[in-house]
Design brief:
This protein is 25% helix and 41% strand. The protein has 181 residues and is an alpha+beta fold. The protein has a 4-stranded antiparallel beta sheet with strand order 2-3-1-4, with helices on one face. A 4-stranded antiparallel beta sheet has the order 6-7-5-8, covered by helices on one side. A hairpin with a 2-residue loop joins strand 6 and strand 7. The two termini are 33 Å apart.
Length: 181
């Protein structure tokens, strides 16, 4: 079974950084299976889940190789390894719906209130991404949720989520990722 590592890096941003880090992981025999990066001022936060199908290198070797990249000598590099539970391709793609909630500005607790709605309908969130970006109207806050919702709960879950989003002032987009029912 392949082993995996969560690699998180906080450092100054520079052109080509994401490619350099990703290529280093591949050069070490790994595969970037999930990655996110966010520029924060002059810095960047990079987080990747990497699979090593054969043999994972020691944590210190991963950290050393990343620190050897130009400009990353003083980067904060964290590596945590873990073994995946058995899974199939179907389990990776088990999200049935993609939901996007948008509003100008956000309030404390919005993410918790929106994501908490799913538990009431035996739905499982399989991916959540929240981001803020500037628009002509001000800072827009967008939450994208991918959920696995049982067929018999879809309608009720959507209605409850619609009410929660409206109460919080969010516009709501809802799309089925695959045929259900």
């Amino acid at each position: 079974m392949p082993t995996s590592a969560v690699i998180s890096i906080l450092c100054r941003d520079r052109m080509g950084l994401i490619a350099a880090i990703s290529e280093t992981i591949v050069d070490m025999g790994g595969k970037v299976s999930d990655m996110t990066a966010s520029v924060l001022g002059q810095g960047i936060v990079y987080v990747a889940i990497s699979l090593w199908p054969d043999k994972e290198p020691p944590i210190a070797e991963i950290q050393d190789r990343i620190h050897e990249l130009p400009g990353l000598g003083g980067a904060d590099v964290q590596v945590n390894t873990f073994e995946l539970l058995p899974f199939s391709v179907e389990s990776i793609e088990k999200g049935t719906h993609r939901i996007r909630c948008r509003r100008i500005n956000d309030n404390r607790g919005d993410l918790g209130a929106l994501s908490g709605t799913f538990a009431d309908f035996n739905a499982n969130l399989v991916r959540v991404h929240a981001e803020r970006y500037m628009t002509a109207a001000g800072w827009e806050f967008t939450i994208t949720l991918e959920a696995m919702i049982p067929d018999e709960e879809i309608k009720a879950c959507f209605e409850a989520l619609k009410k929660t989003a409206k109460r919080l002032g969010y516009a709501l987009e809802w799309e089925a990722k695959k045929e259900t029912g």
